[in-house]
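Sat 14:20. Reprocessing the chain from the morning session after the first attempt stalled halfway. Input below, unchanged.
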Amino acid sequence: MHPPSKLADMSPSLRRCDLRPPSLAPGGWCGWPGARFAIVVATFLLLGCSRRAEGAPSAEALQVVRIGYFANLTHAQAVLGVASGDYARAVSPAKLETKVFNAGPSVIEALFAGEVDIAYVGPGPALGAHARSHGQGIRVLAGGAANGVVVVVRKDSGIHALADLAGKRVATPQLGNTQDVSARHYLSQVLHQADLSTVVPVDNAEQAGMFSRGQLDAAWVPEPWGQRLISEAGATLLAEEKDLWPEKEFVLTVVVTTPEFLQKHPDAVERVLRAHRIWTRRLTEEPQRYLPDLGDALFALSGKRLGPGILGPALQRVKFTDAPHEDTLRAYASWMNDLGFQRGPVDLNDLFDTKILGKLRSEAP
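Finished this time. C-alpha cells:
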C-alpha cells in the first residue's frame, strides 16, 4: 500500500534506542544484541509451535493477567483503568499484574519473553516485532490513541512553516521510533532533503535543555512532550502531524498480545478490551472530567507531576479510539522500508486480529 497521498503532496517516557537501518546497526534491532533478540524470538516461536502441537487450548484457569504500558498520556486507558481498579475487576478472579515501561522495544522484549500478556505500544515497535518474528509473534487487537503528535520550534530558529524545516536540527524521541520515521519521511519525501543527519534522536526529557541552549531548532514529538516544550522552553507550535494525513487521523497507540495468549485465553482478552473500550468512551466523551485523575495517576507512576497548563492542552490534541487504523500501520511499514529500517516489504495480513473488538462493537448500544 502506498503512503497516504496527502503526505506526499503537502509542504507534517523514553530512552535512546538503536534502530539504525540493519546495515548500520551493530547490535541488532533497537539496540538489543542480535543474538539475544534471536534467542528470544526463537524461544517464543518454539514454545508456540510446541503448544499448538498439543491440540486444543488448556482448560486450566488463568491465574494472572499481565499488562504492560507507559506512564504516558497516550496510554491513558491503561493508566486510568489500572489506577481505578477497573482492569483488576475485569480480569478477576485472575490476578492483575502490571509493568510500566519507558520504551516500546522493552515492551516487545517482555511480550516475547512471556513476561507480559497484553500491552500498549506504538506502531513502530509493533511493526518491528511482526517483521522480526516473521508474522508469528504479535497481534494488534485494537487501537488506543490517535493523533497527539506535534512539531514545535524554537522561537528564534527562523522556522515559520513546515518547508523551513529543511536543513534544520529536528529532534525526535528515538532513532526509528514512530515520530522519527514520520519526520524522516516528511523531510526526505516531501521536502526532498537527501541528508537526514540533521534529524537528532534525543530523549524527550532532554529536549527542553537543548532548546534553551540553542542546540535544537525543532522537535517532532508526542504529547505531552510538545506542550512541555511550549510551556517550559518557550517553543512555538508549528503544526500537528494529523493535518498531514488524508483523514486528519493516524494511530499513535495500539493494544497488542501474542497469538499464543489470544488462542489460549480469548475470554481474558475480551474482558480487558471491554474495560479498555469503557475508558476510551469516557475519555472521548468527558476528557476534562478525568483530567485530575489522569494527572494523579501519572504522578503516582512517574513521581513527576506535570506543571499547570501542560496536561489540559496536550489532552485536547489526543483522540482516544479503539480503531486500529490498519492504513496507518501499512503506511508506516512502507516508510520504514523506504528509510532502510526494515529488510524489504513485510506482509501485514496476519498482524491484525480484531474479531473480539468487532464482537464488542456489535454489542454496544
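The longest helix spans residues 34-53.
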